[in-house]
Records
---
Amino acid sequence: MAKQCSVNRKDVPEGGSPMCDDTRAKLLPALQKVQKEKGYISNEDMQDLADEFGIHPVEVHSVVTFYAFLKTGKQGKHHIRVSNCPSCECAGSKEVFAAFQKELGISGGEVTPDGEFSLELSSCIGMCDHAPAVMIGERLVGNVTPEKAALLIKECKEGKGAYTGEYSPGAIERKGDILLKPVEPYASLKKALDIGRAEVLQEVRSSGIKGRGGAGFPTGVKWNLAAAAQSDRKYVVCNADEGEPGTFKDRVLISEYARTVFEGMAIAAFAIGAREGIMYMRGEYASFLPALLDVLAEMRKDGALGKNIFGRGFDFDIEVRLGSGAYVCGEETALIESLEGNRGEPRNRPPFPVNTGYLGDPTVVNNVETCVAVVHIVKNGSEWFRSFGTENSSGTKLLSVSGDCEKPGVYEVPFGTSIEEILKMSGAKDTQAVQVGGASGICLGKKDFKRQISFEDVPTGGAVIVLGKGRDMMDLGRNFLEFFREESCGQCTPCREGIPVLLEMWENIRNNGLTEKERSKLYSLAETMQLASKCGLGQSSPNAFLSIIESFIEKG
Ligand SMILES: Cc1cc2nc3c(=O)[nH]c(=O)nc-3n(C[C@H](O)[C@H](O)[C@H](O)COP(=O)(O)O)c2cc1C
Ligand code: SF4
């Protein structure tokens, strides 16, 4: 099959398959550099980059306008993003935003007259365990109060780097006996090199592990397909986009277990025959980049990356690329488009990335947690891994627990753990509902608290948002629908047009209650969106709203 590759279309020879190189892939990093240096990307900058990349300026403009972090108008020297995810809203982000507005004398989307500050409301920034959270420039700041907002502005004016209330890793709960325990550096990678490719593939397959990013595709099957694909170039991509509202466990893995994540990528690369790896990390986590580059440098020094790894003739290296504020880029084909320097628009599938991925070559995309889990599988064996969890969901799962609970944090639980047990662990009291799986997940009321986290019962990429007594459940539905309206890439009609209609229905139900006519219209639209949307974003966008209607509106 001819390679499908959007890179350097101009190089496609007549009648031949595209010759993919990574020239165009450098466009997004180039735009990010201009954005960082100047605070925005001007028409002249776009023209310059168009000339440099040999493409039309319209193409550059279309990429710039896709990503929330790339701006065509001037931003303040200190750009403040206030997260409006449900956990941050529960903890008072609206009041924090109002305090910033008052202190700065500007509204969201505006810049102060002296050009020092700009302000905006933002989708989840992955700091729900420190809600309410804000981003100032690249820095993540947690536990912000309206009083602290004034202090933060003062500190920015004084040029201080250390903002009060900054994210401090030690402050949150970490409960886990496997993935959150330190491992002996490189023991698994060395073992993988000893036992050989076929046995690694077999162990991962036998472990039954399913991807931890949400979709739950069996990792062993994915690796075997990529290993069998015929190509002299293959890639391993670690998906560290973590944009699902309520999820932050990958942030903890990246910032505290980076070497293990990279070791997992190296094992995947060895198994499928790849020499290049890329971690695609959400722009919100840009402040972790220097530390990640240090870890990579150390691994090269240790002989665990680079040429001839541990003297066994295996070459592999990793680079880290940043996203630019687009949730849909967590979807693996949108991620690949983004890596190639394009708008992060999901592709049609098939072909699947294992055959036709980055630059048209076979590519394995795995979640950060999946990469960590395989390090433990290779070390301890598939049977050991299967001893945790349930028949169809082997192993443990990291959960990001936030919202109305005493101890928000990252909890590792074996699959099969009930919602009730999770509430107990995190010190949640008087719980009205639990949103599992973020905006694309479902909302469970009390009657469902005995249900279990597993692929066969309540699947989740990791987000668990606790909603206490008195929380407005319809408001939660509004929050998610507005999130999806903002994040839809707009490529296909059911998603682009359906989400605003769902929001209108929300308004109607809020004002007039749920009539039979509205109910049947809602279910019919939701079904169309679930069936006809191109990617998981559109397909899952009605889920939370429907479950809220089912559990909290229809039945009482
Ligand atoms: C809208 C959307 C967003 C997604 N975001 C992420 C993400 O942030 N991280 C992630 O690992 N997977 C995400 N996924 C799932 C990926 O498409 C893909 O299934 C996953 O990265 C594969 O890795 P795994 O098999 O290890 O789970 C997302 C899917 C959709 C539809
Ligand atoms: S479903 Fe939505 S996000 Fe996905 S491709 Fe269609 S418009 Fe884009």
---
Amino acid sequence: MLPSKLVLALNDQFNNELQASHSYTAMAAYFSKKGYHGFANFYLVQAKEEHFHAMKFYEYLVTMDEKPMLQSLSEPKNHYVSAMDVLESSLAQEKEVTSNIYALVTLADELQEHATLSFLDWFIEEQMEEEKMFRDMIARMKHIEEGGEYFLKMDDEFAERKLEG
Ligand SMILES: [Fe+2]
Ligand SMILES: [Fe+2]
């Protein structure tokens, strides 16, 4: 059992990760419609990763004898004007998740919940990597034109992305 305040916060993050998955699926659709199937694959894999993150919270709650509670998802942004718009929205979303994780760590620390602190360590690392990944993609995209030769090379590269467990 965990303090109820912490259970609510962990459960919110379980749902936030599902919302992130929902949002990345909408981003994939921008690329699918344009015929950039590599970028679409990248975002569909990203959506699966977020679902995997959600299930880590699900399993942690179950391990601690708590019940995961599903909340309704909100409609994600469905209209993007460019690949850069999608990438910048992705980075903004990851920064928001990082601050949610930090708030959870702060709460677990205040409550002296060491098991939860240890569980959250993985997410601190993961957020560092996710933010870096999108920052790097934005840096590459700054020098190229959407639909241009180098962009299509990136599209081929992203077609190879697979879910890492
Ligand atoms: Fe995540
Ligand atoms: Fe993420």
---
Amino acid sequence: MTVEVGSFNYRVFSDSAPVMEVAWAQKSGLGWRGKHTLLLSRQAGSMFFLGEMYVDLPLPVDDAIGNYCGSCSKCIDICPTEAIIAPYQVDARRCISYLTIELKDSIPESLRPLIGNRIYGCDDCQLVCPWNKFARITNENDFHVRNGLDDVSLIELFGWDQETFETKLAGTPIRRIGHPQWLRNIAVGLGNAPYSNEIVKALQARLDDASALVREHVQWALQQQNTKRTATEENIP
Ligand code: SF4
């Protein structure tokens, strides 16, 4: 490129700085914003990362393309926390990806039961989207499953100490949330699971966790388990 245009300044991004990447991708014709607000491509659905280059070259401007959501509202209907409050409008404070990844504090109690067993993000709005039938599994090894994370129980993950957490998740974005937030999220998932003696034991083992955030969520999860145990016993004839 430098042969064609001479030297120029640039900076490259991919989910690595607060760049208005979806808005610009839409304006530049890479796709349209779906009703879930993510970028959709007719060829690739929404399961991809956007990359950007800031350059100081006078490049030609591309045109935006049309919107192909039509009358579909599957993403709005499936959102577990009703975070898509209107087409093209997400209340980020309700989004499970925000609650489990970005939020550092306590998860609002009213939303915890709606999170189910999602311990790091949520892709329900993308999974249900008809355009993702065009998405393809990448050959990029960095995006493939590591350390059997797609086949492991919440109880086992909850038993990981800080060192195991750091080792098993090295090089993944999950590690960035830190061990206490990881345990907070799993505690919510365990609280939402059907009653089980093993779950109660796993939760009790963390009642004295060093983190107040973890302790509070563990107490909540134990209350949930207790309520379910009582309901089960009451139904036994
Ligand atoms: S699920 Fe339907 S409404 Fe939502 S983004 Fe996909 S096509 Fe658009």
